[in-house]
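Bug: token stream looks shifted between consecutive jobs. Job 1:
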Amino acid sequence: MSISPSEKIKVSIEGSIATIVIDNPAANTWDRESLPALKQVIEALNADPTVYALVLTGAGEKFFSAGADLNQFASGDADVARAVGEAFGEAFETLADFRGVSIAAINGFAMGGGLEVALACDIRIAEDQAALALPEARVGLLPCAGGTQRLTQLVGEGWAKRIILCGERIGAQQALTLGLVEEVVPTGESLATATALAAKVGNQSPSSVAACKRLIHSARNIAIADGLAAERDEFVALFSTEDQQEGTNAFLEKRQPEWKNQ
């Protein structure tokens, strides 16, 4: 029996390695079914003492994950925004706190919440055709799943501002230069490379790995906790603006938004 409650999150376990596949066609988007499912899967893996590492990737050849399903936000309902934001936070923070080693095998576009779930992993391996971005401001939103916090820690404030505030999309080689990913591999090889790296974790003491990870995260988590909560609050606050609804609906209607700055 699968440990995943949703077909949108597929899980297989071989030896000490769990492989999680985001499978929500056509772009592997996140919604209120897949996010709780990811959280439940990580919790189940945490409870399995034989699992030391996990690899996360996207189904298909084009998308790792294109982020949130924007149809959820078309109504401009702040209560929906709060619920989705909290679901993102719970899922991705559970992933970030996985006791073992988590590796993102980025096999295509990683946009918005797709990049944020990779940021929640310990290590990121990208295929050379991958493209990474946090384009939420283009549709009147903001990254609400750790993007403003974790991206800044990895690449520094200047590049975080370029990517988030200027909507700059970067390729895999540039991501490697910036420290956003740890390795770039040819097309089709991210999963095998990530799995081979995950296998090395089996040579380490699981207790030592968990302790080291807690210590590595300790200083960061003191600073990031308030920021993560503030990020979700600011996300929900955008739903009181006209620009949020205009941006989201313009995207869904495939037209340019007409910003009013209100």
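Job 2, same session, no restart:
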Amino acid sequence: MLSALILTVLAGLSTLLGGLVIFFVKKQTDGFLSISMGFSAGVMIFVAFAELLKESIDGIGYFPAVIAFFFGMLIIYIIDLLIPHSYKQENPCIESKRKCDLKRCGVLIAIGIAIHNFPEGIAVFFSSLTDIHVGMAVAFAIALHNIPEGIAVAMPIYYATNSRVKAFWYSFLSGVAEPVGALFAFLFLYKFITPALLYGILGAVAGIMVFISFDELLPKAYEEKSSNKIILGIISGMAVMALSLVFI
């Protein structure tokens, strides 16, 4: 049990390795922002379709997985309506609207990836309990593709706040959802979790991540008016995720 929890912690906190990237960014530029926002969208979209939705379809079938996918979109859409798109009125003298919007993007990415990491933590935990060697393989694979997710979280937060520490902290919070998922599974779901429920959650998370990409990341990226760099960022994000999934 302890080994399973340790493996989940290590897999989740690998997002910190991605978050370390912001300590090597010497100067903020709009071009680099466009690339990083495109990269974030590429990561989110690719992992949603190539991993999460695929796993959901394989586990519970096409129609239930698609229902879960659009249910996830509906949930995040309702949340999007309830959360104001601008914090300018709340902080008129502290942050510009542009920085507030960037911070919102970063927070939503962190939330999306944290929700994504939660069932991953459950997966690592249960696979480790079944066979520690299988658990180690799953944990390594998840840790590998958590690195670009850490980058996706840290970059917009850094551009919004000019704080490397805050950006790093947000990447940590998105990763810590994985061991929290394992702990939750141990305390509450050990006797009740079913494969069908887990696969349904994965489908819903895929919908959430796609919605965030199209509603927040890409519109914000195109405000910077560097379309070629945005496309480069999207392709780079997808390519990095594709390479990481090779090891799964």
